[in-house]
Design brief:
Elements (H helix, E strand, L loop, with lengths): L2 H8 L2 E4 L10 E4 L3 H5 L6 E5 L4 H9 L4 E4 L7 H9 L3 E4 L4 H10 L3 E2 L2
Parallel strand pairs: 2-3, 2-6, 3-4, 4-5
Antiparallel strand pairs: 1-5
Helix pairs in contact: 3-4
């Protein structure tokens, strides 16, 4: 699933990574526990989380995750956006819950990690 499809499905704002609209994601993982994220490994994985801080981006970087969706209408700092941009991570923000975001993406064909 491409970046622009994800944004449309979730009615999400792309905070950075607009130059990667053709980037494809094959699966998604939803978690607020970055320790769980660090134990996962998959190419083309999208992370959905409500944890809106720079540690989320640092975790994504360490796990080679190229896309992060911040759910629940959480405020995203400029520092977080800048760090995502530096690490070539597409950063989305949406208003819906993690449960709903996961369901919407699954319904449109994005596979779960497990």
């Amino acid at each position: 699933m491409k970046v622009n499809e994800i944004a449309k499905i979730l009615d999400a704002k792309i905070l950075c990574g607009e130059d990667n609209l053709d980037l494809e994601f094959e699966c998604a993982f939803a978690s607020d526990l970055m320790s769980d994220v660090l134990t996962t490994q998959a190419d083309g994985m999208l992370l959905l989380t409500g944890l809106a801080n720079v540690q989320t981006i640092r975790t994504a970087e360490m796990s080679d995750i190229r896309g992060v969706v911040i759910v629940r209408n959480k405020a995203v700092s400029q520092e977080m956006i800048d760090l995502a941009r530096e690490n070539d991570i597409v950063l989305f923000a949406c208003k819906v819950s993690m449960f709903k975001a996961s369901g919407l993406l699954y319904e449109k064909g994005l596979k779960p990690l497990f």
